[in-house]
Amino acid sequence: MSTLGIAVIGAGRMGADHARRIGRTAGGARVVAVADPDAGRAKEVAAGLDGAYALTDPAAAVAAPGVGAVLIASPAAAHEEAVGYALERGLPVLCEKPLAPDAAGALRVVEAEQRLGRRLVQVGFMRRHDAEYGLLKELLDAGGIGRPLFLHCRHRNASSPPFFTADMLLGDSAVHEVDAARWLLGQEVTAVSVFAPAPSSLAPEGLGDPRFVLMETSGGALVDVEVFVNCGFGYEVRCEAVGESGSASLGEPQAVEVRRAGLRAQAVPQDFTVRFADAYDRQLRRWVAAAARGGVAGPDAWDGYAAAAVCEAAVASARSGVRTAVELVERPPLYR
Ligand SMILES: NC(=O)c1ccc[n+]([C@@H]2O[C@H](COP(=O)([O-])OP(=O)(O)OC[C@H]3O[C@@H](n4cnc5c(N)ncnc54)[C@H](O)[C@@H]3O)[C@@H](O)[C@H]2O)c1
Ligand SMILES: O[C@H]1[C@H](O)[C@@H](O)[C@H](O)[C@@H](O)[C@H]1O
């Protein structure tokens, strides 16, 4: 089997992390080019990879000799353009979430794939590759707790980066729960309402952190999400599914429990690269195997579009204070 050459677009935190993982865990692939407008970052990441070269132009990286697939980890606003470079060349793509910052951009990707007549774009909703989420999905699909009535979700980050905005709290963070809910339930989100307590005085001003998101689904379930990106104590993602005949939950701490000095304690992971390390590896292995055959293995461009549309409605609801319906175009046959 020949080795799949990958161009990594965006050499920040996630680009660097994925690039390292490709060499370590995704057999049959290697990074051949790294592109970032910040030449120093591209060089630094490429230097840690055997034989990869650094560029500042994403289009040139995608067109570089030996590139057979593209991993995009630039900021959301740059995703659509980079996906376009890959699709022009018929190359498989793993694009970090969100597929685009708005539904219109994500829909243009769906339309470009339809013109090609092939699904080439996978979106980096890595929770679908997490072992606990996988078990919950199997249980729900098997009817193990009956018809699902509720998903109660919590999404907490220790702190948000300096560039984080109120809209990103929904489009960049809660977007994971939007995708997970659609996937776990096998239903679309039809309406969304966003509520907020008085913002945490410990969060950056103007961020409106935390938020409470309530989603209604096509099958009559309700999904609530606490998104709190400056909780201070660590990274915590939990989900409890409640069905007609039982409940199931994930995200309880997996760490060793220590009893000392009158306390019983377990460490909380400090960020996503720890909590979802296995999921990122599994996502890469599955994508590399599928990309070598010219396809995808996980959430596709339609999923990226549907999630973007829900987040856009959530942003509208957060601004207006009003329940907002989610409008989706008809699902094209390519994604059925
Ligand atoms: N799946 C996850 O758990 C997860 C976690 C963190 C971030 N993300 C996603 O990954 C993406 C990147 O996030 P990050 O935390 O690595 O951000 P980052 O700011 O650390 O890195 C982004 C990099 O992209 C570069 N860049 C800017 N414009 C570019 C362009 N037009 N083309 C190529 N590179 C460009 C920047 O110079 C920077 O080096 C975002 O979409 C984010 O939502 C996903
Ligand atoms: O980009 C990151 C990433 O997607 C994390 O998984 C999520 O927990 C953060 O809230 C988000 O900002």
From TrEMBL:
SUPFAM superfamilies: Glyceraldehyde-3-phosphate dehydrogenase-like, C-terminal domain (SSF55347), NAD(P)-binding Rossmann-fold domains (SSF51735). It holds the Pfam family GFO_IDH_MocA. The keyword Transmembrane helix does not apply. Keywords: NAD, Oxidoreductase. Residues 137-322 form the Gfo/Idh/MocA-like oxidoreductase C-terminal domain. InterPro entries: Gfo-Idh-MocA_inositol_DH, Gfo/Idh/MocA-like_OxRdtase_C, Gfo/Idh/MocA-like_OxRdtase_N, MI/DCI_dehydrogenase, NAD(P)-bd_dom_sf. Residues 5-125 form the Gfo/Idh/MocA-like oxidoreductase N-terminal domain. It is an enzyme of class 1 (oxidoreductase). Its EC number is 1.1.1.18. It catalyses: myo-inositol + NAD(+) = scyllo-inosose + NADH + H(+). Gene3D superfamilies: Dihydrodipicolinate Reductase, domain 2 (3.30.360.10), NAD(P)-binding Rossmann-like Domain (3.40.50.720). Belongs to the Gfo/Idh/MocA family. Involved in the oxidation of myo-inositol (MI) to 2-keto-myo-inositol (2KMI or 2-inosose). Homotetramer. This is Inositol 2-dehydrogenase. It comes from Streptomyces toxytricini. The lineage of its organism: Bacteria, Bacillati, Actinomycetota, Actinomycetes, Kitasatosporales. The gene is iolG.
